[in-house]
Design brief:
Blueprint: E1 3-6, E2 9-12, E3 17-23, E4 29-36, E5 42-48, E6 54-56, E7 64-69, E8 74-79, E9 88-96, E10 111-112, E11 116-121
Parallel strand pairs: 2-11
Antiparallel strand pairs: 1-3, 3-8, 4-5, 4-9, 5-6, 7-8, 9-10, 9-11
């Protein structure tokens, strides 16, 4: 499956953005959003199973919300109250589930998008 992210941009701290990730075909996926700050490694933001079960990293709880439109094969990330440290590139990831509908604890994503850049300024 191919993944294409969009929705990045430059915003002031406290503002919002919504990212989108479109998958090239439908399927039963564990999907996620990852964040890579400049000069740093890629870190998990949120993962979501095909059953809607969700795991957020602590730093985004209460500010970011993941959702999925199964008809459009699209995963969204609503980011509110953005902070300077949220700047970076956001990557979408997917892994087709062979058994069950929940993400495994370590998803080991096989498919990645190219990313969309978010810049938050003060």
């Amino acid at each position: 499956v191919q993944l294409v992210e969009s929705g990045g941009g430059s915003v002031q701290a406290g503002e919002s953005l919504r990212l989108s990730c479109v998958a090239s075909r439908s399927g039963r996926y564990c999907m996620g959003w990852y964040h890579q700050a400049p000069g740093k490694g890629r870190g998990e933001v949120v993962i979501q199973g095909a059953d809607g079960s969700t795991r957020y990293t602590e730093s985004v709880k209460g500010r970011f919300t993941v959702s999925r439109d199964y008809a459009k094969n699209t995963l969204y990330l609503q980011m509110d109250n953005l902070k300077l440290e949220d700047s970076g590139t956001y990557f979408c990831a997917a892994r087709e589930l062979l058994f069950g509908y929940a993400c495994p604890s370590s998803p080991d994503f096989r498919n990645w998008g190219r990313g969309t850049r978010v810049t938050v300024f003060g």
